Amino acid sequence: GNSVTQMEGPVTLSEEAFLTINCTYTATGYPSLFWYVQYPGEGLQLLLKATKADDKGSNKGFEATYRKETTSFHLEKGSVQVSDSAVYFCALLTGTASKLTFGTGTRLQVTL
Amino acid sequence: GAVVSQHPSRVICKSGTSVKIECRSLDFQATTMFWYRQFPKQSLMLMATSNEGSKATYEQGVEKDKFLINHASLTLSTLTVTSAHPEDSSFYICSARRNRQGVDSEAFFGQGTRLTVV
């Protein structure tokens, strides 16, 4: 079956630090990969996505590259801000399935 | 991006009563909607998949008689928690997908409903 593994949090960084949140997956077929962000008390928002190997998704300074050889989709940002504090979820969707499979989420706390 | 509206955002109810949560896709048609439950510091647990005009498909372990789902139109799905108990207190989130098939059919999420049963 499909599964997504994320690094455990919380991750605490100072403002302007470099961020990496690891995500690896197992899936049948060729999944699309997603990062969602959840701000406190809110639902999920799509942050970025990649639909095939070697694709790079990017948005708001965040990037993630679909690495088929390592089955990974690590989230990175060069300089985090306090406003980036949230929970980040890695997820996958296979072409024939209709359901997203989520990782457990990683809480990011950015301090001044 | 497309907008999914969930209502109410917060609700407090007494034990034994029922609560209805609405999920609306405001600017697109959604053949399929999903209902998730999120426990504190945990990931989203898919409860059921709601298809317009047909019965919902529930995930294993989810009581369909307790969590009633109705998807009456292409823009509205409702989740009713019947005879709520304190253990039903949770954050419930809906998601809607456009009618397009394939992996580009992005899922849009509502803002969630915090249910507290007292």
Description:
The complex is a heterodimer of chains A (112) and B (118). With 112 residues, chain A is mainly beta. Helices cover 0% and strands 50% of the residues of chain A. Chain A contains no helices and twelve strands. Chain B is an all-beta fold. Chain B is 0% helix and 52% strand. Chain B has no helices and eleven strands. In chain B, strand 4 and strand 5 form a beta hairpin. The mean pLDDT of chain B is 89. The chains are: A mainly beta (112), B mainly beta (118). Chains A and B meet through strand 6 of A and strand 5, strand 9 and strand 10 of B.
Question: Main attributes?
Answer:
heterodimer; A: 112 residues; mainly beta; 6-stranded mixed sheet; B: 118 residues; 7-stranded mixed sheet; 11 strands
Helix-strand makeup class of chain B: mainly beta
Helix content of chain B: under 10%
What ranges of chain A have pLDDT less than 50 throughout 5 or more consecutive residues? Answer: none
Specify the number of helices of chain A. 0
Name the chain pair whose interface involves the most residues.
Answer: A-B, 23 and 25 residues
Q: Give helix and strand order of chain B, one letter per element, not per position.
A: EEEEEEEEEEE
Oligomer: heterodimer
In summary, what is this structure?
With 112 residues, chain A is mostly beta strands.
Which helices and strands appear, and what pairs or packs with what?
The complex is a heterodimer of chains A (112) and B (118).
Chain A: E1 3-6, E2 11-14, E3 19-21, E4 23-26, E5 32-38, E6 44-50, E7 56-59, E8 62-65, E9 75-77, E10 86-93, E11 101-102, E12 106-111
Chain B: E1 4-7, E2 10-13, E3 19-25, E4 32-38, E5 44-51, E6 57-58, E7 67-73, E8 76-81, E9 90-97, E10 107-109, E11 113-117
Parallel strand pairs in B: 2-11
Antiparallel strand pairs in B: 1-3, 3-8, 4-5, 4-9, 5-6, 7-8, 9-10, 9-11
